[in-house]
């Protein structure tokens, strides 16, 4: 099991499970409208620790983040539905944003 | 009766950003984008490339965010229901059918629309595409001229689809639309509401399938009166 933290709460994921799916399974509140398809941005999180271990965002994720995080440092933001837990991401620390950015 | 009205009031609530004219503007942008995507779909194209192209066109129209995924379905994938993964690598043939279903968000306003197109010479497929749109308007007209509830409208649609020779997919049976996100108010199907849906805040979805051949067609637009379809 791979542990990460959302708003300070420890959540465990199975390998290759998305952060969003792991949170939903664990009953930790994290919003989604598009049901984890990387379209709505409701599950946007700020990466507080572990940013360097994350694979680069896809073109679609990067442009949505860029749109939603305008005025902030977009490089530190990701979509929880597009982060898939692997061993190098152990201990990842994330902070959730509200549904409407 | 009051219980039904209370339910309607609850399920048809809108958020603080709701503006009627902006919803209509969003509808026009959505439908325009659907036709732009369709115009760029050519025989020989792989479905995954069409989806990427559709996303690029949406971004170009300032519709980066979507409340649901972008669907461009080619050939046999037109049988797939909402949310189902397409079979990979499907190529649009010379004589073929495809549909588009997009749910973009522009500012705080949600759009949603779908339409079906054919390429080459495919008369049966073209009839399927035309019948999806025809059935949409038959049901929409029934909505406009009667007091039928969402549930009754889809019961009616099922029978009308059968009369036209198609099977209606009730997994795609209408839903709310609003300022983003409508899902916070009501995420369920229109086919399960027991009141007459109000204009502007619901979309009517029609997904028909050939009973034995491997294709179907989809049409979706807002519930609005005739004057919006001139």
* SS class of chain B: alpha+beta
Mean pLDDT of chain B: 96
Query: Whole-Å distance between the termini of chain A?
Result: 31 Å
Low-confidence stretches of chain A: none
How far is the first residue's CA from the last residue's CA of chain B? 35 Å
Biggest sheet of chain B, in brief? 4 strands, antiparallel
Oligomer state equals heterodimer
Number of strands of chain A: 5
Mean pLDDT of chain A: 92
User: Strand fraction band of chain B?
Assistant: 15-25%
Tell me the helix content of chain B. Answer: 25-40%
Order of helices and strands of chain B: HHHEEEEEEHHEEEE
> Which protein chains are joined by the largest interface, and how many residues does each one contribute?
A-B, 15 and 17 residues
What value does the Rg of chain B take, in angstroms? 17 Å
Helix content of chain A: 10-25%
Low-confidence stretches of chain B: none
Keywords:
heterodimer, A: alpha+beta, five-stranded mixed sheet, 18% helix, globular, B: 230 residues, four-stranded antiparallel sheet, three-stranded antiparallel sheet, 5 helices, 10 strands
Description of the structure:
The complex is a heterodimer of chains A (101) and B (230). Chain A has 101 residues and is of the alpha+beta class. Chain A is 18% helix and 23% strand. Chain A has two helices and five strands; from the N terminus they run E-E-H-E-H-E-E. In chain A, strands 2-1-5-3-4 form a five-stranded mixed beta sheet. In chain A, strand 1 (2-6) and strand 2 form a beta hairpin. The longest helix of chain A has 10 residues, at 59-68. Chain A is globular and about 35 Å long. Chain B is an alpha+beta fold and 230 residues long. Chain B contains five helices and ten strands, in the order H-H-H-E-E-E-E-E-E-H-H-E-E-E-E. Chain B has helices at 2-11, 20-40, 47-60, 123-145, 150-164, and strands at 65-66, 71-74, 96-102, 104-106, 109-110, 113-119, 167-168, 175-176, 202-209, 216-222. In chain B, the strands form three sheets. In chain B, strands 7, 8, 9 and 10 form a four-stranded antiparallel beta sheet that branches. A three-stranded antiparallel beta sheet of chain B has the order 1-4-5, with helices on one face. Chain B has a three-stranded antiparallel beta sheet with strand order 2-3-6, sandwiched between helices. Chain B is globular, with a radius of gyration of 17 Å. At the A-B interface, helix 2 of A face strand 1 of B.
